[in-house]
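wait is this the right file?? whatever heres the structure
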């Protein structure tokens, strides 16, 4: 493990409904992981969307204890930080929390819009320039897009965590990308 890193832990699955509702993570077990702080450096450009900007600010300012759900749904979110593939600026996006065995599904649904969200292109361009924050400590991650049977398994997990994904899939002609963010090895 690198100097300055510290062990952290997360629940194994978001499919435990009580843990999702309570945000206390229940006793679903823990997966060891390491946090080395914020790996991405550069200028942060807040979202032009007021609610996204406010949620990120409140989430980070509270160490993940406030603004950690999607609006008034009570469903948990994570904060994903990427580097803009054109601007080079840091971008932060709240996404639904879909976690399994220490990995996170990042669902590029954009509410069923006909195009992929910008953060998707940032991650495709540089899959190692990503930080995930699920609670107080952000951690370095690397992402990969999944397809076929693996995508189907993760898609089912995503719909179990956030049922509107199924509706979003019906609204669009595109295949909604599913990316998996895994902690970078220490």
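ok assuming it is, sequence goes like this
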């Amino acid at each position: 493990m690198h100097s300055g890193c510290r062990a952290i832990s997360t629940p194994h699955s978001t499919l435990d409904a009580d843990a999702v509702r309570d945000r206390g993570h229940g006793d679903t077990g823990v997966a060891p992981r390491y946090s080395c702080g914020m790996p991405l450096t550069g200028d942060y450009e807040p979202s032009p969307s007021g609610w996204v900007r406010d949620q990120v600010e409140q989430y980070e300012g509270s160490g993940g204890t406030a603004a950690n759900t999607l609006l008034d749904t009570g469903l948990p979110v994570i904060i994903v930080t990427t580097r803009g593939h054109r601007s080079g600026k840091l971008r932060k996006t709240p996404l639904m929390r879909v976690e399994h065995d220490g990995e996170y599904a990042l669902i590029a649904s954009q509410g069923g819009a006909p195009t992929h969200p910008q953060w998707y292109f940032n991650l495709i361009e540089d899959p190692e320039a990503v930080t995930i924050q699920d609670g107080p400590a952000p951690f370095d991650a690397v992402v990969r897009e999944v397809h076929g049977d693996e995508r189907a398994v993760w898609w089912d997990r995503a719909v179990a965590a956030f049922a509107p994904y199924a509706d979003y899939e019906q609204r669009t002609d595109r295949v909604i990308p599913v990316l998996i963010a895994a902690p970078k090895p220490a």
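The radius of gyration is 15 Å. so i think its the right one actually
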